[in-house]
Amino acid sequence: MHSTKSAFIPYEGLLYSEEEMIARTWDFYQYMDKRRSLRMFSEQAVPKAVIENVILTASTAPSGAHKQPWTFCVVQDPEIKRKIRIAAEKEEYENYHGRMSEQWLEDLKPFGTNWEKGFLEIAPALIIVFKKPYDLTEEQQREKNYYVNESVGLAAGFLLAAIHQAGLVALTHTPSPMNFLQNILDRPENERAFLLIPVGYPADQAMVPDIKRKELEEVVKWY
Questions:
Q1: Residue 219 falls within a domain, yes or no?
Q2: pTM for the model
Q3: Angle, alpha carbons 47-49-54 (nearest 5°)
Q4: Structural domain that includes position 111
Q5: The CATH number of the domain where 151 resides is what?
């Protein structure tokens, strides 16, 4: 018998009838189809337990060799949020005034965005997702992580779904480069900022772009 260091336990899955599977997946799709990225937030505080729960959900994502190469930093302090906004706007100004191609700027027009990112101060919480290319032992020795971008990307997807399930809204913000986040939050050398996600309630009379998602035939091929 193949030896292993890992213990195994029985899998306790959930089994549904075919009809129930179809109904549950359709209901979940319809619910998730209501998810939108939002830039207009209320200042209303979000309960700490809700933030903890959505991060716990994100941490259930699969990861290479179960290394879980992520850290979620939650920023609620107004002064730190202001520092993040100032640093992000500096990078975004450079992006909108030279770094981005004309095609990129044209593609962004339907969203009405610019370099100003006031939502970084208005949203009650910022969740900064950091990826860890390697872990550090107590002796500061490096331990390699695997499929880091894929693993952290999956965790971010779980996080967004959990935020939506809570009735909150979020935005995947990627001011590039993002190394200022590592400096402002004084994160260790083995962490790299992956996503900056403002989280909160939608502002009164919040608006979103009138855009459509691709049809099923456009995103799937059967073989």
A1: no
A2: 0.93
A3: 105
A4: 36-202
A5: 3.40.109.10
State the sign of the Cα–Cα–Cα–Cα dihedral 162, 167, 168, 171: positive
What is the domain count for the chain? 1
Nearest CA-CA partner of 170 in 127, 205, 138, 207: 127
The terminus-to-terminus CA distance of the chain in angstroms comes to: 36
| Beta strand 192-200 pairing with 169-170 | antiparallel
The CA distances from residue 203 to 31, 48, 77, 169, 174, in Å, are: 20, 19, 20, 10, 22
How far apart CA 214 and CA 21 sit, in angstroms, is 23
**Rounded to whole angstroms, how far apart are CA atoms 131 and 195?**
9
d(CA 138, CA 118): 39
Mean pLDDT by 10 residues, the chain (223 residues): 70 94 97 96 98 98 98 98 97 92 92 94 98 93 96 98 98 92 97 98 95 96 97
